[in-house]
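Technical note accompanying the year-one report. For the benefit of new consortium partners, we illustrate the data format agreed upon in the data management plan: each record pairs a sequence with a structure-token string. No post-processing was applied to the example shown here.
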Amino acid sequence: MTGDKLALGAAAALAALGLAKQRGSKSEERPEHFYHSTFLENLDDIEEHGITASEGSQFGGGYAAHSRGRVFLSGWPGVFFWMSKMEQIAHASSDFDSDGDFGWTPINLRVRSEGIDHEMVKDERGYRDSGFKESWYIEGDIDPEFIEVWDGANWEPITSVSSEDMREEAMDNSTLESEDGTEWWDINFDIFMPRRG
């Protein structure tokens, strides 16, 4: 083999090795954080037990079987979509005519990547439904120590946040409406919509 051919062969081998390394490292790379939308009424349970695999789906229909045994996560671009889905569920589930209904206020959790020690599987259904925003699921739980919650101003460790304080914050930013003797809360669903920070 001539020197030129040896050089070309070596270059091709190095290029192939570099490509293989890129592919391998890319599959292992993760964002620093993932996001999970839920309701204020779930905060205390998550503080104690973490985010646990679903026994069904809040969305109903075909999502029930799709969700069972899984925890769903999104990237930052999907946060608004999933928070808006929580708002739709809240409206369908409550008349907001009592203080207890503030448990239906959507909240967002931020999960540190190192807290996910299960295989992350691309959620094709969530990806499609969210307008092609990155979505994943894992078949396992996430410990509270890796979870933060947006409290209306900052990301805070979930173990340091009071659900009662957040409930009062939601009430302070909502309006009690009335008509013909009927009262209901006009809830500010944006109060816990997070900023990236």
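Partners are asked to follow this layout when depositing records. The chain is about 35% helix and 20% strand.
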